[in-house]
Amino acid sequence: MSNAAVTAASASPATSAGKSILARLGAAFVGRLVIIIPYVWLLFFFLIPFIIVFKISLSQTAIAMPPYTPVLDFSGGISGFFGQLRQLSIDNYVWLTQDALYFNAYVTSLIIAAISTVLTLLVGYPIAYGMARAPATIRPTLLMLVILPFWTSFLIRVYAWIGILKPEGLLNQLLLATGIISQPLIILNTYTAIFIGIVYSYLPFMVLPLYSSLEKMDYSLIEAAKDLGCPPTSAFWKITFPLSLPGVIAGCLLVFIPAVGEFVIPDLLGGSQTLMIGKTLWNEFFANRDWPVSSAVAVILLLLLTVPIMLFQQAQARAQEQDK
Amino acid sequence: MIRKALWLSATSAFLTLFAVGSHAEDRVVNVFNWSDYIDSSIIDDFTKATGIKVVYDTFDSNEILETKLLAGGSGYDVVVPSGNFLARQIQAGVFQKLDKSKLPNISNMWDTVSERTAKYDPGNEYSINYMWGTVGIGYNIKKVQTALGTDKIDSWDVFFNPDSLAKLKDCGVYVLDSPADIIPAALKYLGLDPNSTSPDDIAKAEEALLKVRPYIRKFHSSEYINALANGDICLAVGWSGDVFQARNRAVEAKQGVEIGYSVPKEGAQMWFDQMAIPADAPHVAEALEFINYMMKPEVIAKSSNYVLYANGNKASQQFIDKALLDDPSVYPDAETIKKLYTVSPYDPKTQRVITRTWTKIVTGQ
């Protein structure tokens, strides 16, 4: 935009005004377009699907195609459309509060996701730190090694853990052969197996943002701290960790959010007693064929995840403004 | 330059249209069946015989199929849902009535099966049986022998009696994660009507299942195949064909694992997989031709010999491997067949009670 303005200003004064307005309009249009694209993306791939799901959550289940009523259309004209709208109700949300099942499932999912996130952070941080401090020549190789597992199907990788963790599996055979244990450990079909599965599957999502924030860190700060007599551990907590905080937050969100709705890992590795919201949603959708209630479960899950993040962002923005 | 590019794109667009146009002249049928459920040479033979190209796609759960069908516009011409799912889907208007005049081979079908499938599809107007089987007990013969002192399992008692199942706890028990298959079995064991929708009866079934719940390692509808075959578990309540698959895998693996399957003497649930044509199928004529071809005795026998399930085609039995036909766990004798029961689909309200009960049994909540 500024370029266009400069060119226009150097032209004769009589035409400069017209030209510059046109150029400005054009540049502004391009600028707008660049901003609009992500919004259009969000509109089509987030907002509209969400509105559809929200609408289904206000409908009633029916034995029909699609299996809910009313289906909004304009076949009955505008008045017919409003008639259909009046049939929508919040009954399904009320239903969710009447059975403790849903509340328990949400809570269990949040707890499992939170524990997994902390474990992933504990495992991922040293890895990212090691990578960031490694010689620059081998960093691309290390980065590659973190990304490499993505080239195999997620399902196959989770399935492979069954072979490792089962009572006659690789891990137990190894531990038995080395004499560390005398009885095979029962890990498969327990919460431990779920944690192992989630930590393993989501580790790259934690390592990558951590690595990118640790790599950018200026290590002369640590040297300065050392010179001033600061022991390494407190130098870590006073300098390294606070500077890597954006990476920590990004990594935790990237692990926590998908872990809450995780279905495959608890289904394959977890025991049947594991009650998570993903399974509850599956039951509502597939076993009960109740698309409206399962939509309501999904809407609540979405709110549960996005509202705290939005509040957090707002609080952060406010804190930043206060710093200024 | 631009003009040239425009020309190029216009001609290529035209060519694509043309290609699509000529493609439409090829006769096609889109089949959506269970995975591992056909001898694939049948598909090639069908194409050779009729010139109809088969686009064969597979699913592994009724629920996935149902969701595609209920959403509409699935594009499939022949689908194979199980009986109780079929019944509900017919009610929802998913299927079209079959034009029986295009299905002359229907005379080969077996009345013993057709009478029962009529429970889901009155008059068998919408569907033709593909395969059928039972819900019974698959077990690791050696491990059960060690734990119980006998390898003869012929009753639900081995599963529903807490004392007996407790002995099998450590070697592992898996159960189908499917209330519509397990709750009726519990009702049958208790001497109640397996079709009962009364909340009292369902509560009794729940009680019976909760008593044995501590000894069940996992509820899952497919993992037991591998778990049985690998010798990871010693007992599974599952579908007949899946257990036979486990048995074959165990034989192939040569690890000394032997798998048995029992149809309990109290009676077991019969299930049916039915071929049907969606109401919005794009190639109805080809679909009918495909279904008619599948009813040829030697064709469906070939499929049974491969997938190890019984089929509902009486005339095919002369072409079925003797070992399979004589296996009472695949083709039970007339006496046992009388004891087999079918379960009608639940109405939405009962379904909710059943699912909720099941969640309580499985998760304890």
TrEMBL record, chain A:
Coarse class of the protein's main subcellular location: membrane
From the Swiss-Prot or TrEMBL record, state where the protein is found.
Cell membrane
Q: Which domain of life is it from?
A: Bacteria
Q: How does it sit in the membrane?
A: Multi-pass membrane protein
Gene3D superfamilies hit by this protein: MetI-like (1.10.3720.10)
Annotated ABC transmembrane type-1 domain residues = 106-312
Q: What is this protein's record name?
A: ABC transporter permease subunit
Q: Which organism is it from?
A: Mesorhizobium qingshengii
Taxon lineage: Bacteria, Pseudomonadati, Pseudomonadota, Alphaproteobacteria, Hyphomicrobiales
TrEMBL record, chain B:
- Which SUPFAM superfamilies does the record associate with it? Periplasmic binding protein-like II (SSF53850)
Q: Which InterPro entries match?
A: SBP, Sperm_putr-bd
Fetch the CDD domains from UniProt: PBP2_PotF
> Where are the bilayer-spanning segments?
none
The entry's localization annotation reads: Periplasm
What residue stretch is flagged as signal peptide?
1-24
Q: Provide this UniProt record's keywords sorted from A to Z.
A: Periplasm, Signal, Transport
* Domain of life according to the entry: Bacteria
Task: Enumerate the Pfam families for this protein.
Answer: SBP_bac_8 (PF13416)
Protein function: Required for the activity of the bacterial periplasmic transport system of putrescine.
Q: Which family does it belong to?
A: Belongs to the bacterial solute-binding protein PotD/PotF family.
Q: What is this protein called?
A: Putrescine-binding periplasmic protein
